[in-house]
Automatic annotation (TrEMBL):
The chain crosses the membrane at residues 29-52. It comes from Brachybacterium alimentarium. The lineage of its organism: Bacteria, Bacillati, Actinomycetota, Actinomycetes, Micrococcales. Residues 107-248 form the Cell envelope-related transcriptional attenuator domain. NCBIfam families: lytR_cpsA_psr (TIGR00350). This is Transcriptional regulator. Gene3D superfamilies: LCP protein. Residues 1-22 are annotated as: Disordered. Keywords: Membrane, Transmembrane, Transmembrane helix. The keyword Transmembrane helix applies. Pfam families: LytR_cpsA_psr.
């Protein structure tokens, strides 16, 4: 058989299986780009995972307690709409009390109920007068802040649940030293001061005042300088909480993972929460409220009656059950927006 003759091919003919050098370079560049993108994504995942691990490790330094209701606490209120958090502030716990998960002998100078609606777009922070005279399961009628001393966070939670008629989903108790550390870690906060006064070697001037941790702590403890005593102290506590919240959700803080981690690190040793308020739960809460800004935080007081002296000689604050029923319904129905519009500044 004769060998085939040379065949003349058309000038524009190309072998599709053999890409030209330009195509090969393009493919190599694309593959390199994809590889770099994959490395960047992997690096980002590692950084985020490391950050969250560090954040969780810092948060786990808190004391954890059980807030299950005891036999004498009565039935827990039926589930309402939205979430409710009980915030407690007090002086230092003893090491023994913290280790045991209790705070025996300690009264809560700060008691606030935070209601977060289902949509997570706002938050309503309600203060309780510390001398409000209410039923405390197993202890009769007493000042509401005594519940923490009688039975720790668990009894404080059940006392508030019984009084407001909605379940408390989580509790957080912070020692005042933790508040001081938080304010300092944030670089100070701006607080609205109601009037000129001096306390603890610090001068406070009416209007917006920048405070460091020690100044903020001194400010929230004062009551004798004010005509309405504890009631103004409640408002001052809310002013400091607002200052902290404004700084925490500011662009400066949110854009600084190191500052967030340092803040958590500074308060965790002074923090007690229920076991359900885990690190992952806090992250989920933060994500659900990521659009909240300072103007979306609404501060008010629960209704109360006049101060009076009991037969035993104790100075207490009466409840206002008729007005409380209106608040209870608003909490159950997740209609705090309407309630706030109608009752803000009433107390």
């Amino acid at each position: 058989m004769n060998a085939p003759e040379n065949i003349d091919l058309p000038a524009d003919w190309e072998d599709d299986d053999q890409p030209d050098p330009g195509q090969r370079r393009g493919r190599r560049i694309a593959l390199i780009a994809l590889g770099l993108a994959a490395l960047l994504v992997l690096g980002l995942v590692i950084v985020v995972a490391s950050y969250l691990h560090g954040l969780n490790s810092a948060y786990e330094k808190r004391t954890v307690v059980d807030i299950s209701r005891g036999p004498s606490d009565g039935e827990r209120p039926e589930d309402g709409v939205g979430q409710n958090f009980l915030l407690l502030g007090s002086d230092k716990r003893s090491a023994e009390a913290a280790k045991a998960g209790g705070v025996s002998g300690q009264r809560s100078d700060v008691m606030m109920l935070v209601h977060v609606p289902d949509d997570g777009a706002e938050a309503y922070i309600m203060s309780f007068p510390r001398d409000l005279y209410v039923e405390i399961a197993g202890h009769g009628t007493d000042r509401i802040n005594a519940a923490l001393a009688f039975g720790g966070p668990s009894l404080a939670v059940s006392t508030v649940e019984n009084y407001v008629g909605v379940p408390v989903d989580h509790v957080a108790l912070i020692d005042f030293d933790g508040i001081e550390g938080m304010v300092d870690t944030l670089g100070g906060i701006d607080v609205q001061v109601p009037q000129d006064f001096e306390a603890g070697g610090h001068q406070f001037t009416a209007g917006t005042q920048s405070m460091d941790g020690e100044e903020a702590l001194t400010f929230v403890r004062q009551r004798k300088q004010f005509a309405d005593g504890d009631f103004q102290r409640n408002r001052n506590q809310q002013a400091v909480l607002k200052g902290i919240a404004d700084k925490l959700i500011s662009a400066d803080t949110l854009s600084s993972p190191a500052k967030i981690t340092d803040t958590v690190e500074s308060i965790s040793p002074f923090l007690t929460t229920d076991d359900g308020l885990s690190g992952s739960a806090m992250v989920q809460l933060g994500l659900s409220m990521r659009s909240v800004r300072g103007g979306d935080l609404h501060f008010l007081s629960v209704p109360y009656g006049d101060p009076y002296t009991t037969q035993g000689g104790a100075s207490v604050v009466a409840t206002d059950e008729e007005s409380m029923d209106v608040l209870r319904e608003a909490l159950r129905e997740d209609d705090m927006g309407t309630y706030y519009a109608e009752h803000a500044g009433a107390y």
